[in-house]
Structure formats: C-alpha cells, structure tokens
Amino acid sequence: FYSFKIMLKAVILIGSPQKGTRFRPLSLEIPKPLFPIAGHPILYHLIESCAQLRELREILLIGCYQPNEALSRFIANAQQTFNISIRYLQEYASLGTGGGIYHFRDLIKSNVSDKDVFFVINGDICADLPLVEMLQFHRENVGDKGFTILGTEATEKQSTNYGCIAWDKESHEVKHYVEKPSTFVSTTINCGVYLFSKVIFQILSETYRNNQQIYNESLPIFHESSSTFTTYDTGFARENIRLEKDVLSKLGGTGQLYVFPMANRFWTAIKNPSSVIYANRHYLEIYRMYHPERLSKQSDSNGPTIIGDVFIHPTACVAPSAVLGPNVSIGQDVTIGYGVRVRESIILGSCVLQDHCCVLYSIIAWNSTIGPWSRVEGTPNDPDPNRQFSKIEKDSLFHDGKLHPSITVIGNNVSIPGEVVVLNAIVLPHKELGSSSKNQIIL
Amino acid sequence: MKALILVGGYGTRLRPLTLTKPKPLVEFCNKPMVLHQIEALAEVGVTHVILAVSYLSDMLQREMEVEAKRLGIKITISQETEPLGTAGPLALARDHLQVENEPFFVLNSDVICEFPFNDMIKFHKEHNCEGTIVFLLAGPLALARDHLQVENEPFFVLNSDVICEFPFNDMIKFHKEHNCEGTIVVTKVDEPSKYGVVVYEQNTGKIDRFVEKPREYVSNKINAGLYIFNPAILNRIELRPTSIEKEIFPAMASDKQLYAFELKGFWMDVGQPKDYLTGMGLYLNFARSSMPDRLSRDNGTVGNVLVDPTAKIGERCRIGPNVVIGPRVIIQDGVCLKNCTILADSLVKSHSWIANCIIGWRCNIGQWVRMENTSVLGLDVSVQDELFINGGIILPHKAISESVSEPKILI
How many CB atoms are located within 10 Å of the residue B273 CB? Predict the structure, then answer.
C-alpha cells in the first residue's frame, strides 16, 4: 500500500543528433523526437501517454541536443497542455541509454522516496502505451523485488532485431536478456519502457566503474598531454553506459527484472520512414477511439472527400475536390489544390500540393511543393497484418546495390515539377527536381 | 483504275491491338490505316482495290464491303494460301490486275502519307500511261504478275506500314526520266545503322548497292517502302517465298535497273507502337497545315489535337500536344493527355495523366492513374484508380489492380 505523497516521475531519453541517421533526411531539420506523426510530435504522444498517470508530476527529457527554439517551444506548450513539469537535461556528450540516467541521478532522485519508482521511456518509440496497467502490475507483483520492463511480442524472425526477453510465464521474472541476438532467443522483445526504483543507480554506478576500468585499460599510454585522452576515441564518452547491453543483460536471471507483457496493442520503434507511416496509421486509429475530435469528418458539401482516418491541421487549406485518406496527416498551413489525392502519407507544414497531384505512401517534409499531375509514391513496408505480433522489418536502404523499395521521403524545401513521377525515392532537402526519379537517393 | 494493297500477316508488332482487329483496320488518327490509303485512291479515281492478305478475317471482309459501298468502288480480297514474302502477292493478284491492261501502283499498306494520287495520275496522264496503285503490305509480288504485266506499264509498290507525304507524281516523272525497271523512294534518317541503307549516285539517283544495318556510316538514306516498277520486274520474281528487298533489289541494282527517288516531307513506318505515336505526331503536324479545321481548338488543348465529334472532354483538362481521341471516348475533368491515342469508347477518369501511350477500345482508366513510356492497352482493359503503368503492354480484357512500375507484358 502506497501513500499519496508519492511523486511519480518519468524520464524520456530523446537521444542525440548522431542517433536517427536512418531517419534522415527528416532528422536533418529537427530532433527526431519532435517529428510530427498524426499531427503531433513523437514526444507529444509519449507525454500524452505519461499524462494518463494521475500521480505523475514531472517529466525529465534527457538528450544531447543543443537547446533550440523548437525544443524549448515544444516543452513550454506541452507543460501547459498537460499541466506537468517538463525539464530538458542536456548531456555534455552522448552518454548512451544508461549514461544519461546515471549522470543526472541526483535530479531524478530528488523528491522521490526510496520505495518509489520512476519510468524510463525511449524517445523513439510510438505505441499505445499501457503505463497505468504497467505501474499497477509493478506495485502488485514486483514491488521491492526489482524493476519492470515492458515487453511485446514479435515474430521469431523479427525478434532478433530487438532486445529479446526470455521469462517465466508464471512469475514474469526475466530469466535471460540479450540485445539483438544472432540466433533466436524469445519472441518477447523490449519495448524500451522501464520502471526503475532508486536501486538502479547502484547498478549503474557499478557499471560505470566497471566501464571506466575497461576504458582506461584500453587507452594507449601517453605521457605528454592528458588532453589527448579525452579526444582519443570520438563518439565514445567515458561515462557511456548502454542500458540494454551493460545493465539489462546482467539483470536477467537475478530475480531483479520482471516483464509486463503488452497485450495486442500497437508498438513500433521509429527507426525509418516505413515505421513513421505505420505509426501515423495507428495514432490516427487511437484518435478515432479516444480523440475523435482530432479527426476530420466528411462534410456535406464544402470539404474534401475523407476516406478513413485523416488528420487535417485547422490552418490547412484543402480544395473540396481533393480526396484524402485513409491514414493521412496534413500539417499546418498546407495548401492542397484541385483534385489532389493523398493516401497513407504525412504532409508536413507549409507544403503545397498542386492540382491533380497524387501522393501515396510518402512523407513530404516542410515547405515543399509538388507540381500539377505529379505522382509521389512509395512502397509500404508494413508488418503483415495477418501475422500476429508482426513488427516493421529491419530494412537496410540498399539491396544488391539497388535502393530497397520503401516509403518515398521528400525533404524540406524541395520543389517537384509538374507531371513527373517520384517513385521509391529519397530526396534530400532544398532540391529542385528536374525530372522523374525512381528507386534513387537524390543528394 | 485499280490498286493492289498487300496487307499481309498478323501484324504482331502492333499487338495487343492486332489481337482484336487486323492491322489495316486499326485506327491511325481516327481512321483505319488502310482507309487512309483507300480513300486517297478513291479520290483520284481508283475504282477497284485489291487487298492481298495472307490470312483472311471476316472483320476485314465486312469492313471492306461497307467501305466499298460508301466510296463507290470495288474492293476485292485476294488471299495467299501460304506466305509468299514481300514480292509474291503481286503474282497472286495477277488475274485482277491484268484485265484492264493498265499500269498500277504497288504500295506497302503500313505507309501513311499525304497520298498525292491526283498529282501522280496527272503526271501519269501527261506521260500517256494509265496507272494502277498497289499497296504492298507483306506479300508476294509474283502472285500479282498476271495483273501487273499485261500492259507493260510501270506500277507503284508501297510498303504498308509507312506514313509520309506520298509524292507519287514526282515519282512517276522521275521514273520515266531514267527509263529503267525500278524506282525506290528513299528517305533520310538520323540513325541509319538501324536500317538497310541505299547507296546511289547523287546526281542521277542510280542505285549502286544496298547495305543492311551498316556499322560504319555509308549513307543516311533508307528504303522508304514506296516503289515504281516496270512489269519487267515480274520476270525476276518466281512464285515462291521471295524477299523483294533482299533478293530482287540487289539483282536489279547490279543490272543498273534501279533508281532512288528522295522523299521530301515526313515519313514514318507506323507498324509498331513507338513509331505509331511518332507517326501520329507527324501526321497531326501535317494535318495542321493541310486540314486545320479538323484539329481541335477547344479550351485546354495544347498543340495539335484531333478529337472525334462524339467524344466528350471534361473541364480543367490539358489535352495535347499530339493527342488523338476516338469516337464516344469520355475524358473526365482534370485529365492530362500528351502524345497519345485513345481509341473508341474508352473512358479516362478524373485527374489521370497519360503520355506516350495507346489506349485501346472500350478501356476504363481510373482516377489518378499515371500511364507512360509507350504503354499499350488492348481491347476492354480496365486500370484501377491510382495505379502507375510504366511501359505496360496489356492484353485484351485484363483488369489491372496493381501498378506496373517497370516495362512488361501482361498476358
């Protein structure tokens, strides 16, 4: 039984500019966590999930982004919307998934009783997160014994792309944890959502010391200048701790780690544009259930034809002859012309889709223009809906030297002329396309 | 006067259109190919047209009966029992051609051009020679021997896949001047290595030799598929499968009996889809100067556009340049068409974009469909909304529900 003085906190790991390279060119403009899906940033959806926890008082964002206007504005708006204190803690260097938590341990610990827990959530996931149920599970079944990790089911083939959890179906105790194994371990995978008590800091501390030792031993001996040491291995900070490899792997089989399996709810890691289109569809579906006011309804005469779930920002200007949906999100100040067709796509702020153009399975970034009668089309890489627990397949960009057919991504400030086709392509920002392009990356 | 049109075989290069109609009946610029030729012949007083075919189709027979009535001429269909090459059909048509003891033209039936039959006849009369015109599609010249040699007058042979501004008058004049067995019309092409080129004396036109697909440049003039021959040529042709180009012409050239006549104006062999579309552009350009009233001046048309009066075109479309729209076709609002032919009774729904394609009869193209890269749709093909067809050759009665993003044939 817990008292009401509890101060529940959540830590969201928003990563660093070095992360999310597979998400380029979309991550060139803004931090990946701020990328809008279904009209709201990825981070907004996570905060909205956290806001379901009535006791939650504070969210700490840990990352390595330079403070920027977009992030500050987002935080200010979110604090107001959700009435939760949100603070951004900037790492001096990219410290890994565990390093940041350890580095900012004092800020996380403050105002948290020894008995209490805090959430740690990876900032690059999109999901219908069952945080309330997970907390309840932890309090009823785990308590002082240790920590809880959120798990979801994948197919055998897909599971090895994720952290795999072998667990006791009775006690929910994690018997074995291994990150991205090369052979099959378990179909239960790590969702990147954890409930930790303060005990985690002792474990992180031990890991930290251990890593320091390994790090020092691996250094070449220099006698002249100590400054050489700090720049010795770029990209590897001394305080780097990988939560999954360094910590969770060790916790398996110790009786300290328990899994809360997510039932058949939507979960995806946002790694590539395919997962963005997939997440867009599922967030729109969640809107239909919990926030129907966010979705566009078919109006009788003046509005465009709406098929399925469609989000249209109120400032967007859409011609009545346009046909949108299913699973389309239209951003701020977007202009959509006569007879435009958009399906399974995200159109970001200030884009112009000129008359008769057709956009399918694509992401059009800010301020881009698609000319009349042009066709922008990608190839969906959705999980097989007929296979239970399917996730987005890991996809490398190239296959046998050819660009793998995938979602078409048009970077920001790109201008696509009329009457061309852009098929399975990635167009980097600030390009003026001259002609059609198929299965290409356009630098 | 008489004409022999050698229609020939199955027209495989123009499939899938020729799976539904024999090639002479496939519409080129809203008129069956062979009618471009027959009408021009009728206009200059030809009263009897013989079509030499290597396979007989009821459809061709029926259509020709109708056309014969309409034009007030006689049309006979002469069938080869076995393929006789490019010279044999002439021999086969002998009985028809020799009755009136007149010279005749031989034309290859794939050729579309301005058909200057009047000029030809005028010229012909000036030289006091009656003429018969023969369209040579594919078949044997030798079969028509009896028709052709009686009067001992020169005759034309035309290659049926070609369109150009047929300069028949000048050809006859030229032919009479050199007074040898044969005249071949030659035309200049940009890429001669794809064709058999003709090497001849520039000032006289006397043909020296033929070089098939030369690797190194020897000449940029190729055989345009229009000929005039004296009946003496018939003695060179036996009633067996014979290639006039490979066997007869080289022999005539070595006997110094063959002359080249340079063609001015447009020329195109329209026997395959890509060239059909190029030929369409050339023909429409020619139509702009010769029959400008037939071209559309409606709102939203760009360049040369030929629209059948029974076709309907919606608003906010952009049609052209180089578009032919057949009878009863419906083009819905906001469609963009460029360099394509839409055959009779087809429907193109809103916001679709079609360039460089031939859409067959009774096709149904959905909304926001993009078609390009010499896609050819046969009869009664339907393409679902929002698909992309890139170089798809689609056989009749197919329903397409998935994009064809790379060129391929859908059986």
Answer: 21
